[in-house]
Amino acid sequence: MFVNMWTVMCIKVLSGRSVQRGLRGTFQGKSAVNGNKTQACVCRSSSFTQTHRTGSEPPWRVLFFGSDDFAVESLKRLHASSGDGAVVDLLEVVTLSSSVPIHKYAQQHKLRVHSWPDVDFSSQFDVGVVVSFGCLLQERVINKLPYGILNVHPSLLPRWRGPAPVFHTVLHGDKLTGVSIMQIRPKRFDVGPILNQELFPVPHKVTAEELGAALAVKGAELLINTLRNLPEKIANRREQNKDGATFAPKISSALSWLVWEEQTCDGIDRLYRAIGSRIPLRTVWMGKQIKLLDFVGQCHPHLGSLSAAVPGSIRYQKESNTLLVRCKDGWVGFKSVKLKKSLSAADFYNGYLHQSFLKKSLSQSSCRFQSYRETTQHCSFGNDKPLLFNTGVH
What we know:
The chain is α+β, with helices and mostly antiparallel strands. The chain has eleven helices and 17 strands.
């Protein structure tokens, strides 16, 4: 009887005026009289909202917080899941800047955008989603959303908490990673309970950019899966294990300086795949910074007695047009370098390594790259600022 009376009341209201922003679509309920399904309007008044939300189902009113390309994939999926019978009823976006990819996507698709921290909560959202936002959300914001705020994080939490999980996954040679959907908590990043998690094998020789793109897709899929069964996922959430927690700090360009005596062929390979597309690997040549470009990996030159060459030693391999450099346990190759301008390996050899040049200005023993630590007291190459990658940090 209650359902029929409520239906009549809503029909009267709706017949007299348009649906207001505070109304929530329809739900299917059974009539107490005849058992048939009857459409009933659910009004978001303060007295009814909490009861409705406790046993609610999608579609949801979603407030999305994001910034970079990693976050765009999740926003795309949410946007595609809106409309009748879908996961999302209403979708609005919060950004830190008008220049970030999330803001551009929202504008292109006519989604309402809020500029942080000026967020209008009059739409009475059910749940928040934060992906690569780059800002810690306050408790007062979290508490405005009945189902809290979900975070798409590209790691198997508690491994690689922090702003750069994808980078550290590649840098440390992890064979297995994944995506975690968690509820955020105030004051600390990445410590909230896990609602959903999926494993993802790390592809061989993958770069951080490639892995980040793959995890963005996987994370978006897992987010939609979580929202389809949100009350159940929350009811079965699990706290993160305190054991095995690792931290993934922001990336500093200082990491691009090579220490030939300490770094192995595999270590340099992992470093290049982690940051090489954004920050060139660097070393020192005759007191000057030189950038090493177009890394080709470990090389196996037939150099005879040169197997005893000291770390940092340089040789030019003509048949492959590659500059070889000795590191801790072998040789690695680069196809080009940059001093004042970009030079191919052949150009660098002809201009700096050729025997006629060596006889005039260099000795064979000094024909090598110096590790940055050897020159820190004598050279300054500018500030090495922290950088942020595809991360998933909220």
